[in-house]
Write a structure and sequence with these properties.
The protein is an alpha+beta fold and 593 residues long. It has 27 helices and 17 strands.
Length: 593
């Protein structure tokens, strides 16, 4: 019997509850079952099982999947072992099958892991790098936890130390290039290492796999950039990755807020000081996708960014995105020319104190303007132009009214005057051509770099497909038929076929996180996000088709085949027409904007 057939038979004969119940005492919790995590010693139940979807998710340890992944985790076996255990339980006879070959993606993970091990090993032999980390206050256990390493390079080593080490492990140059570990040289010359003479910080995806690196230069007299990050690859999309997110998920949930900082040292030192809810952006501006990841874990954020102009600009960007999604955003007033890592090294207790004194972003920006003001009238005008637009983006009317009062008191005017000015900004935002569509364009702009290349687009397409694969099961039922009908037009396949494409272990966490998110936010906001993602998936799939026809047209032109070139051009026009026809707004769900 083929493995796929065996899996299906087992799932037909056993339910997820049958498999989990011997390990966990489950109790009804709405549509799901709930119990204490079998993976951690917790007092408050955070382990959920969905009988309908055949999935489980443990919020305390951020892991989930189907009955097979559960048995793997509980019994310490691989998939084959879990299959054998469940087949015996279900009375299904197994027939061995040939193992599948590793995919190209698997090889990328493998070569990045090999590079990480090499960097870790190199650090143990580089005294100067060890001394630098010690001077920064990084403890040995922190180095081990975050897998910090060292990339050899000039002046003490050559330009191709990693390349040659990986070649000895039988990794090829194309594999290293695809993983962003080496760079191509001029014609006739050997490719060389991307990272040389740098302290290496592996960047992990949400599941804890190494997908990229950030390297901090070690030699003080070097003219090279202070930090170098991996280029975007099939595995690494900087618009989607938050450094430390894989290790911070549990901390964000338990502390009920995320602490956002700027750099790798800030993250690891914050975790070392007990703030295990800390994340940093990986070499790009904060994006809507980053905010979505954080909001699924907590609706509260604290920003601890530099006090310079760039740091204040980053605070404003975060405020614009987070406030619009209804998040509670506070800001730590950092001392001039100090970052979290410096503060923690000098006095961790003082850092905890300033985090505890964080103020709401509106109040923080008011204080910044007050410090910069040259006269009272100029200050009031700046408040109107620079602060009220953020108040206008707050969806909660009670919160809006509160901050209108705070601002009125600070600028010594009436709350009614501030309210009138705020309303003007609200109307201005609403008057923009289909305000929602403008927001979508802003979101697309944020991800433009990632989606310009095929690998980034493929990664985003897979993420959106997984999102829609599970959304049907957690969205309120009255919206599901309309969603499925339009989705299947976009993807040109059935929803069931889409779901079968992906591993249940990947889908489980997404499913429960979306379910929790839907329970916390207004349904209109949820549907607005659904529409945004539908349109983005439509564009990505359309772009794929156009790329294929454009290649055909190019080839036909080269071959002098005018008829084929014209036909390809017609196909491109038809795809564009279809894309436009499938763009939707909230009216898809019967909601007028």
């Amino acid at each position: 019997m083929a493995r796929h057939d065996a899996v299906q038979q087992i799932k037909e004969r056993l339910s997820i509850v049958d498999v989990v119940a011997p390990y966990v005492e489950l109790h009804p919790a709405g549509k799901s079952m709930k119990g204490k995590s079998p993976f951690s010693n917790e007092k408050t139940p955070s382990f959920f099982v969905s009988p309908d979807r055949g999935m489980y998710y443990c919020f305390s340890t951020a892991q989930g999947g189907d009955m097979f992944t559960f048995v793997q985790a509980m019994e310490g076996v691989d998939f084959k072992g879990a299959l054998k255990i469940l087949a015996e339980k279900a009375g299904v006879e197994l027939v061995p099958e040939d193992p599948r070959k590793k995919t190209e993606r698997d090889r990328q993970y493998d070569v990045l892991e090999a590079a990480t091990v090499y960097f870790e090993r190199s650090l143990s032999g580089m005294k100067q790098a060890q001394e630098y980390l010690q001077q920064r206050g990084v403890l040995p256990q922190t180095i081990a936890k975050w897998r910090i390493g060292y990339a050899p390079g000039p002046p003490q080593y050559g330009w191709r130390e990693l390349k040659h080490a990986l070649e000895e492990e039988e990794y090829t140059v194309p594999e290293m290039l695809r993983a962003g570990l080496i760079k191509e040289a001029d014609a006739g010359k050997e490719a060389y290492d991307m990272f040389r003479d740098r302290i290496m910080f592996p960047i992990f995806d949400n599941a804890g796999h190494v997908v990229a690196f950030s390297g901090r230069i070690l030699s003080k007299d070097s003219d090279a950039p202070k930090y170098v990050n991996s280029p975007e690859t099939d595995l690494f999309n900087k618009s989607e990755i938050l450094y430390g997110y894989d290790k911070a998920k549990q901390g964000i949930r338990s502390m009920d807020f995320c602490l956002c900082v700027e750099g790798q040292f800030d993250v690891i030192m914050a975790h070392q000081a007990g703030y295990t809810n800390t994340v940093a952006i990986s070499g790009t501006a904060l994006t809507p996708h980053h905010v979505m990841l954080l909001q699924r874990l907590s609706n509260r954020a604290v920003l601890a960014l530099d006090a310079d102009r760039a740091g204040i600009a980053a605070v404003k960007r975060a405020a614009e995105l987070m406030l619009a999604r209804g998040m509670d955003v506070k800001v730590v007033r950092m001392p001039d020319e100090e970052d979290p890592a410096d503060m923690i090294q000098k006095d961790a207790a003082q850092f905890k104190k300033v985090v505890g004194q964080a103020t709401h972003v509106i109040e923080y920006l008011l204080a910044v303007l007050a410090d910069q003001a040259t006269d009272e009238r100029a200050f009031k005008l700046q408040v109107r132009e620079e602060i009220l637009p953020y108040v206008a983006r707050i969806p909660n009317r009670i919160d809006q009214e509160h901050f209108e009062g705070v601002i009125a008191k600070r600028v010594q005017t009436t709350q009614e005057a501030i309210h009138i000015e705020t309303q003007r900004f609200i109307e201005k935002i609403a008057a923009q051509p289909h305000s929602k569509k403008v927001t979508q364009q802003a979101r697309r702009s944020e991800n433009k770099d990632a989606h310009n290349d095929t690998s980034g687009a493929l990664r985003r397409k897979e993420e959106l497909e997984k999102y829609f694969a599970v959304l049907v099961d957690v969205l309120p039922k009255e919206y599901v038929p309309l969603l499925v009908e339009h989705l299947e037009k976009v993807i040109e396949q059935t929803h069931a076929h889409l779901t079968e494409k992906y591993d249940p272990a990947d889908l489980s966490g997404i499913s429960f996180q979306i379910e929790q998110y839907i329970d916390k936010v207004p349904i209109k906001q949820v549907l607005d996000e659904v529409v945004t993602n539908l349109n983005e998936l439509n564009r990505l799939l359309s772009r794929e088709k156009r790329r294929v026809y454009a290649e055909q047209q190019k080839q036909a032109d080269m071959n002098g085949d005018t008829e084929a070139a014209i036909d390809a051009a017609k196909q491109i026009a038809e795809v564009q027409k279809q894309e436009a026809a499938l763009m939707v707004d909230l009216e898809l769900f019967g909601i007028t904007t």
